[in-house]
Amino acid sequence: MACETKSCCWNWVMAFVFISVFNLQSPVWGKPAVPCYFVFGDSLVDSGNNNNLATDAKVNYWPYGIDFPKGPTGRFCNGRTIADVTAERLGFDDYIPPFATANGPEIIKGVNYASGSAGIRDETGSHQGVCISLNKQLKNHKIIISRIAGFLGSYHSAYEHLKKCLYSFTIGSNDYINNYFLPQFYNSSQLYTPSAYARILSQQYSRQLKTLHRYGARKVTLAGIGAIGCTPNATSYYGTNGSLCVDKMNSAVQLFNKRLVTLVDQLNAKHQDSKFIALNTLVQTPPGFPPGFNMSTLRCCDVNDFGLCIRAKSPCSQRATHIFWDSFHPAEVLNLIAANKAFHSEATSDAYPTDIQRLVHFNPEAHSTRS
Fold it and tell me: How far apart, in whole angstroms, are the C-alpha atoms of residue 233 and residue 306?
């Protein structure tokens, strides 16, 4: 899961050979590998939960969704998120609905709780307005569990159902981008060294994951934080001092990513009826941009003061050749590569200790547990 800081920018770039293999294919729906899929996280996987919140972190307008079948839905991308691609690979017959609009029996198949600007810490992202922190997302999940129990007839039936589901977490970036590295709004960088901050962040994350385990989760993926120092926002705002990226930002998040692997080991040892895995969603390539990538403008759209695409302004036409969609978020092509790599990989540097394809076959009934 480690990343060399002075080359982390290249982790966001993919060669066209990978694109041609996966070819941005349309979803192939089938019988799901798991009966339900629950998504927790931030703007990287938000599917519309921020649309009606009082926040600057919402994107339910064109050109967002320009390449998504349902158009602008609140996804911070031109097309599919990592969670969307994972739902396709799992075989679901539709994308997982956001908590804000999920209702009726559809919730039995899963709910997306993710919220743009949200973090592991409650205060993260609050300078942009209202967001749904991870603690609040877990409370929303508890509400959904009660509704599922109503549909299935009892809490026992609900928990029997829930332990077969897949749970994914893509969160933590904002605890750095919209907290630690914004001293004008938050004092975390004055209170903690990068190492201490990674420690207290992972400790809080551990408590939250243990809460989810009490709610019945048994198959859980935890995405590492990407190279936030390589985003167009970071390089333009902080400068790189001759490096490819903002090295101090990438170094800080790697401290957290290393702790994430340790956390997975600890959770798996304590909860033997469960399986937690850590995902490295960075995409490794040889040095240098592959042919066709725009080297001067890494983002695909013109952005506003918040680094998001300007409403109703046309984006670039060659979106499959751009690394970033706006100043913070990857374009669909990068989500596709990262999701496929997490779903099936033989390398523990990509998915530890196993990948999603193997995780979904984990049988909680076959393992004893220690509380």
Answer: 9
